[in-house]
Amino acid sequence: MAFENPDRPTIKKILEETSTIAVVGLSDKPDRTSYMVAEAMQKRGYRIIPVNPMVQGRILGETCYPSLLDIPEPVDMVNVFRRSETTVPVAEEAVKIGAKTLWLQLGVYNEEAAEIAGRAGMNVIMDRCVKVEDAILRPDRG
Fold first, then answer.
1. In the predicted structure, residue 48 carries a pLDDT above the cut 70
2. Per-residue pLDDT at 121
3. Is the pTM higher than 0.70?
4. Is the Cβ–Cβ distance between 69 and 96 less than 8 Å?
5. 8 Å CB contact between 21 and 80
6. Which 3 state secondary structure label does DSSP give 9?
7. 133 — phi, psi (to 5°)?
C-alpha cells in the first residue's frame, strides 16, 4: 500500500504537540533553505537542535550535533533536509532516540524510511515543508 501523509487536522495536532525539533542536515549558511526553515520555526517558538556532522559549534545559537544519537535530551520531531536515498539511517536513529515524528522535507520521500518509523509507532510526514504546514495550520503562532 502506498504511503499517504496524515490529514491536515492530524498534522496540526502533531505540530501542537511538538516543542523540540532536531533538524538533520541543517546548514550553517543563512542562504540555505534548511537554515531559513529552521530559523522560521525557531521564531515560531520551537526549540531547534541542529544535526550536521560537517559543522562544529553552533547554528542559530544552538549546539550542533554530529548525529541524532549524540543529542543529550528528548526530541519530539526529526525534520530531515537530506537526499531521499540517505534517509533510512536517519529513520533508524529517530526510532532509537524515541522521537515521536519523522518529517521529511519537501522533495524528500523514502518508503523504507517511512516503514521503519511507522513500525515504531512514529508519525511520518514526507515531501512537505514543516514551515509551510505550521504557517497554514497555526497562523496565530509566532
1. yes
2. 98
3. yes
4. yes
5. no
6. helix
7. -60, -45
